[in-house]
Design goal:
By secondary structure, the chain is mainly α. It folds into 3 domains: about 100 residues, Serine Threonine Protein Phosphatase 5, Tetratricopeptide repeat (Alpha Horseshoe), CATH 1.25.40; about 130 residues, DNA Cyclobutane Dipyrimidine Photolyase, subunit A, domain 3, CATH 1.10.579.10; about 130 residues, Rossmann fold, CATH 3.40.50. The chain is built from 18 helices and 5 strands. Strands 3-2-1-4-5 form a 5-stranded parallel sheet, sandwiched between helices. Strand 4, helix 16 and strand 5 form a beta-alpha-beta unit. Helix 4 packs across helix 18, helix 5 crosses helix 18 and helix 9 packs across helix 11. About 40% of the residues are buried.
């Protein structure tokens, strides 16, 4: 058995993990690529960020308060990469639609030999021992270091010649921090589909440089398949992805809902309903949805749902504390009927409106239109709220990361001045 990985599954744990990691921030650039047991060189806050148990702005402000911009830049970039990926996918939602279509087609019609080989890799039976270790680490712990994710994705695509979207689905089903934007676009980047002329090739020399020596020494079998010059890039067909003309999402005026019969819907995209701005409108009731029903993929290993349940418990406890009454905070467990339960909850409480943070492109967002129709039929409005962080940075995420970071870096330096003045 591979030892479990410590990941913050509550807001208190996330704040504590951030505080513990702050002294390591200046060394992040030097150490972040090392894959070592326990992964102490990285913050492991990705799960808390994915479910917004902690806000990106809180992490950024803490780093800028304790360190110079230059000392914290590499870690700040890592935080902003997640924001960039989310923003880019909001501008290019067809990528997610194409991914789902391709994945369904694979499950419906891929040849038996390819499917059997894919399962062998997922179960850690590829014959390349270090890659098999990473597959087992993922399914047993729900976590992989980012460098290991890149190595394994490259092995899947460029060595085994398996479809990138099937590997991406494997990660989505097992990662505790599974994020549609970061995962989908990260796999596309490795495949050479995200940036023209750029793909990522796994190399044995890179593994020897960054992988814990004892770990690699114990997993030498098959490593010759990854030697420099052996791995050739899968011939990607790069296509320019259409960009929507506008995100077209006016900021909700919450002031009009003060002293009205409103309820909060808290879903897995944002676990900070008890924080601003949603708390401006005092709710009659709060519905917590621990996870929406998803139809893609198949089996999921224990760490991922266990982590989600821990997150959901933390969210519910904080909402209970805010509301002061358990009767006013029902929970909907994962089910294909979650939407029906939500509409029934809104009707039972005679709500005029349901307030919720707008879901990002992904499985919850896919069902937004149906939810709006059902609530409207019940005479209930739905008001989508967005965080200032997202509305600030998403407009810059239309194109590549480095133009995005050029603007972001300048604004963060100005932010640091305002924080310290």
């Amino acid at each position: 058995m591979i030892p479990p990985i410590s990941m913050a599954a509550s807001r208190d744990q996330a704040l504590s993990a951030l505080n513990d990691f702050l002294p390591k921030v200046p060394f992040y650039g030097q150490k972040r690529n090392r894959v070592i047991p326990g992964h102490e060189d990285v913050s492991r806050l990705s799960g808390a960020l994915r479910h917004r148990l902690i806000q990106e702005s809180e992490i950024v402000d803490a780093v800028l308060h304790h360190h110079s911009f230059q000392a914290g830049e590499k870690y700040l970039q890592e935080v902003l990469w997640r924001t960039y990926w989310k923003g880019w996918l909001e501008w290019h939602p067809s990528v997610w639609a194409d991914y789902k279509h391709s994945l369904k087609a694979w499950h419906d019609g891929a040849d038996d030999r390819a499917q059997e080989r894919a399962v062998a890799l997922m179960e850690g039976r590829s014959g390349v021992a270090i890659m098999d270790f990473f597959a087992q680490e993922l399914t047993q712990t729900g976590y992989l270091h980012n460098h290991a994710r890149m190595w394994w994705a490259s092995f899947w695509i460029h060595v085994e010649r398996l479809p990138w979207y099937v590997g991406a689905d494997f990660f989505m089903r097992h990662l505790c921090d599974a994020d549609v934007a970061s995962n989908t676009l990260g796999w596309r980047w490795v495949a050479g589909l995200q940036t023209a002329g750029k793909s990522y090739l796994v190399r044995a020399s890179n593994l020897r440089k960054y992988c814990e020596p004892s770990l690699l020494e114990a997993h030498q079998a098959g490593l010759e398949r990854l030697e420099d010059g052996v791995v050739e890039a899968w011939p990607a067909s790069y296509l320019t992805i259409p960009c929507v003309e506008t995100l077209g999402r006016p900021t909700a005026d919450l002031s009009r809902w003060v002293d009205r019969r409103v309820g909060w819907w808290v879903h897995p995209e944002d676990g900070l309903a008890d924080q601003k701005p949603l708390q401006k409108a005092n709710p009659v009731s709060v519905l917590c949805t621990s996870r929406v029903h998803e139809t893609l993929g198949s089996s999921v290993s224990a760490p991922s749902p266990r982590y989600r349940h821990q997150v959901a418990d933390d969210v519910r406890q904080r909402v209970l504390s805010f509301m002061g009454s358990g009767d006013r905070v029902p929970t909907v467990e994962p089910s294909e009927h979650w939407m029906e339960s939500l509409v029934q909850w809104a009707s039972k409480n005679h709500l005029e409106a349901v307030l919720a943070y707008r879901p990002f492109v992904g499985s919850i967002h896919d069902q937004v239109t149906d939810l709006e129709i059902q609530l409207e039929a019940a005479g209930v409005a739905i008001v989508w709220v967005e965080r200032e962080w997202d509305t600030t940075w998403f407009p810059y995420a239309k194109k590549g990361f480095f133009p995005f970071w050029k603007s972001a870096g300048q604004q963060l330096q100005a932010r640091q001045i305002s924080l310290t003045s």
